[in-house]
Amino acid sequence: MLANASTQENGPSLLLRGLRKSFADVVAVDGLDLEVKRGECFGLLGPNGAGKTTTIEICEGLTPPDAGTVELLGLNWATGGDQLRQRTGIQLQETQFPDKLTVDETLRLFRSFFRRGLSIDESIRTAQLEEKRHARVGTLSGGQKQRLAMACALVGDPELLFLDEPTTGLDPQARRNLWDLVDGLKQSGRTIILTTHYMDEAERLCDRVAIMDHGRLIALDSPEQLIASLGGEHIVEFSISGNDGNRGLLDAAFLTGITGVMSHRVDAGLHQLSVRQLHTTVPLIFAALAAQGLHLSDFRTHSATLEDVFVGLTGRNLRDE
Amino acid sequence: MSKLERSSLYQLTMVRFRLFLREPEAIFWIFVFPVLLAVGLGLAFRNRPPDVLQVGATTAQLASALAADKGLTTTTISEPEGAHALAAGKILLLAIQTPDGVAYEYDDTNPDARTARMVVDRAVQTAAGRRESVPVQNRLVRETGSRYIDFVVPGLLGMNLMGSAIWGMGFSIVESRQKKLLKRLVASPMPRWQYLASYLLARLSMLVIEVVGFLGFAWLVFGVPFRGSLWQLGFLCVLTSLAFSAVGLLVASRAKTMEAASGLMNLVMLPMWILSGVFFSASRFPAVIQPVVRALPLTAAIDALRGNMLQGLNLWQLTTQMAILLTWLVVAFTISLRIFRWR
């Protein structure tokens, strides 16, 4: 009994084993294993249709899995459903709260479902909605509505918080506001599991990310480690013009042969090299191309991001979907 | 927060009230429209005093003979002027004194003129000394309760109870489902039964305003009779409203869009508006379809309401109607709980 209690305290917040779910003939989640530690901010990343929302809805107890086990805070939905609902906070992708209720009334409603939790004042303050407290939901901006959804998720003072695409459809300013809000929640020691298809969001917020594609996990690590796994921290992108006959000569072996180039891929005529140090490698690239009699028509560099990790793993851009 | 404010059932019910009261159209359809309809029908079908027929007579003696009949207003008028008044429709009939008797000038295609011809002739003959060969008595029936307005008020009440229950349940539930609010609510610790219970609680509270307002108006303005017991009338209203709430819940239990729900609701309500005897007696429909007409919840509701208000029947005499309503309530509610889609 004591041992059990201590596992509940120190064990993982979320444990998924062999999770599977199909809709008709589409496999949404295809054998997923995952473990999220207490107090961690964990990101589920992937393009639209990767199975993120299905996974998170299975975790939230909204969708039963076809196979596999789900354990949250040491409990499962079949036997501990009531307790889990009291201890988790949920923000769904597309909830529209009634337009004609005020922020205050909406929060009072959600607060009444929980045995313990934040006061209405506190949750309004956390979500920075003080000025909109008595405004109707219909008059709120997209960012304010999303913060209200967060406030509703927080009002039960949850140990585990699920955020499904919290910033989709928001303008950059509203996104940054919401990120600050999530930062604040991380400080208070809650476990946060969020899905996103914005790589910058995951890099900014998450301690660890799992990259999903076609219902499977294709990478799992901290954002820094994932980027480091590319081999280089910088990405050099260029395309070449003129001398069409020579284009074929510019093969991967030639480019990766340049000192300091860690990997190469080409996408629609745009070459991408991952590079460890720009200042030493770029001159070598220029020299090598010039020696081949090739002219650059475009040349850019940027720091490697999770986007590059995804491209490196799948050969596809996130936004292609 | 007080203990009441912490109760989720209270909060859910308050949400229903707030959303309803902040929807002006809903208030109009549920509270104002039935009153307007009753006023309109009351005016159109008001019982006028018996019409007095305008006639002319060419001599004062003839005119005084006609004046003896209360159904006639007689003017003494010369023959050419009388012909003119007749052509202009100011009088229906002109009685002309002729040397050998009386001549009537009138348009025999006009029913009122034909009536005037009979009334005038009776007055002329009576004045000349004719006696009826068979003694007759006239017994006039003009009491409240047999007027059209008395008939139509329970019908409108039943129709309103149906409309407010079905629209009230159907629209808000389907809207919540379409906007994914229902899904968000079931992901929270909200007890699911409280969600449905909040609808019923709000409905029953609004029912009081709705019924008392409408019937109070009908009583004050039209003097519509209440011959049965008032608490039994209240009970019938509650039963009716619950039965239609169950039907509304059934309609709303699967529909994913407002358009689908709207179509379904009209499909359910339209036949009852026509068949259930709101504006005229349902017994006018052919005997073949009578079993169907009788089984409809609105027919049962209106029959029961009319039985209570107009005939003064008690609940024991209305068991058939109550059994029909109760069956709809139980069957529709059971099925909806089985098939209800929470997301």
How would you classify the helix and strand content of chain A by structural class? alpha/beta
Rg of chain A: 23 Å
Named at the architecture level, the CATH assignment of the largest domain in chain A is 3-Layer(aba) Sandwich
Largest sheet of chain A: 6 strands, mixed
**Helix and strand string of chain B, N-terminal first?**
HHHEHEHEEHHHHHHHHH
Strand content of chain A: 25-35%
Indicate the CATH class of the largest domain in chain A.
Alpha Beta
The tally of structural domains of chain A comes to: 2
Strand content of chain B: 5-15%
Number of strands of chain A: 13
Question: Low-confidence parts of chain A, pLDDT < 50 over ≥5 residues?
Answer: 1-7
Major sheet of chain B: order of its strands? 2-1-3-4
How would you state the average pLDDT of chain B, rounded? 89
Mean pLDDT of chain A: 85
**How far is it from the N-terminal to the C-terminal residue of chain A, by CA?**
49 Å
Helix content of chain A: 25-40%
Could you characterize what this model shows?
The complex is a heterodimer of chains A (321) and B (343). Chain A is α/β, with parallel strands linked by helices and 321 residues long. Chain A has 2 domains: 2-227, P-loop containing nucleotide triphosphate hydrolases (Rossmann fold, 3-Layer(aba) Sandwich); 231-303, 2-Layer Sandwich (Alpha-Beta Plaits). Chain A has 12 helices and 13 strands. Chain A has a 6-stranded mixed sheet, with helices on both faces. In chain A, strands 11-12-10-13 form a 4-stranded antiparallel sheet. In chain A, strands 2-1-4 form a 3-stranded antiparallel sheet, with helices on one face. Chain A is elongated, with a radius of gyration of 23 Å. Residues 1-7 of chain A have low confidence and may be disordered. Chain B has 2 domains: 10-45 and 147-339, no CATH class; 53-127. A 4-stranded mixed sheet of chain B has the order 2-1-3-4, with helices on both faces. Chain B is built from 14 helices and 4 strands.
